[in-house]
Amino acid sequence: MRARLHDPHGPIALRGYPWYLGAVLALLVATFGEFAGELRGLLAISGAMLFNLPVLLPRLGPRNVEVVLGAGYVDVKRAGVRRQRIRARDVTGASTALLGSKIVLSLARKGRKDIPIALELESLDEVKAIRDALGVGHDGFGTVLWPSALRSTEGQDTVFSASAFVLNAVSFALVVGSLFEGDSTTPWLVLTLMGSVGATILALLLRLSSRKEVSSYVAMRADGLHVYHLGRWQVLPYNRIASIDEHHDGLMLMLHGNAPYLVHAKARSFFARGLSKAERQIVIAQVTSAAQRAQGRGTPKPETETRIDVLKRNGETPHAWFSRLDVTAQTMLSGGYRGGSNLSEQDLWTLVEDHDADLELRTGAARVLVRARPENQARVDTLLAAIRDEGDQRRVRVALDPDLDAAGREFEELEQRQMAAQMRR
Q: Which residues of the chain have a pLDDT value below 50?
C-alpha cells in the first residue's frame, strides 16, 4: 500500500552514532597510522568535521513511500535513506487520527526520543492492517511525545558546532591548497584549527551541561494530554479539551468553559529542531481525535455481541482449559454455537484482532478458531506475531499446539518459569 511518511530525523544512520564512530576512527588512523604530515592532518580535520556534522543535518520533509506488511513488522520501502523496518516489539506508543481526507498513524519507538514518525493513509482498512501487523489496538496505546521547544543551550550548541565545522572546512582547504601549490599556509592553518578546537570544546560543554535538562514537550498518554514547559508540568484530561488550533507561539487549546491554554511549540528551523507546520497539524489532529473519543464522538470500538466468558480459564489447569476449548471448537463446528447468546466465529475473530483485549481471552479464542478450522492457523499466526512481549507470545503459540498433552505440559512449565522470574525481581 502507498502512504506518506513523516520522519524528519530519519533512522539512526543519519543521526549521531555513525558520524561519531567515523570521527573516532579517522582520528585514530591519523594518530597511529604511518602517513605523511599533510595526509595525517587531512584525516584529523576530517574526523573533527564528522564530529560536528550531526548537529548540522537538516530535517527531512514528508515523502510518498510504499508500506509492506509482515507478521509482527511493517517495512517502509521506496523511502530513500528513510527505508526502514518497524517492529511491533519496538513500538512504545501509537495513536490514530483523521487528518483532512486522510488517516494519520503516529508511532513512537524504542531508542528514538525525537519526533515520532507518522504515516498518512487513505482508508481505515489500511490503518487497521498496519495496526494488526504492529499489535496496536483500536484506541492506540503507550506514549506519543512531541518535543515542543529547544533546551536552553541547544541554539548556542548549534552555533558553535556550525562554526567549528566551517573552520575545519577552511583548514581542510588550506592543507589541500598547500599540497598542490606548495604555499605556506601555516599561520592561517593554526588560527583556523585553534578556532575549531575552541568552538568544539564550547559545544561539548554546552551539550554536557544540558544533559539533565528536560526540554519542553507535549505528550499523549492514556490519562490525558501531558504538557511540560519551563519546569511546569500539567495533565489535561481529553474530555476537558473543546478544540485545539495553531498559534504564533505554539498551539492554543480551548478547554470547556472557554478557558484558553497555550502549548508553547517552537516553529521549525533549518536544522532538525522544532515542529514543522505539517507536524503541528498532525499534533492538532491527534489531540482532536483523542478529545472526540473521550467525549463519545469517535468511531466506536468493535465489540463482541455474544457471551465470551466460556473462553476464560477460571483457575483450571492448562490441560483442562485446552480440553474444554477443544470441545467448544467441535460444538461450534457442528453448528451448536449459532444462537444469539452463544459464541460466534465473528466474535472470536473480534477478540483475536483486539490487541487491547485480555490475553487469556485472546488465547482461548485463538485456540477455538484453529481447532475448529485448521485453515485459520495462518491468519491467527499473523495476528499473534504482533504481541510485543516475547514471553506472552510464546505462551500463546504453545496454547495453539494441537497435541493436548504436550500443550498443557509446556504451558504449565512456562507459567512456572514466569512465576519464578517474578519472585527473583
A: 272, 336-341
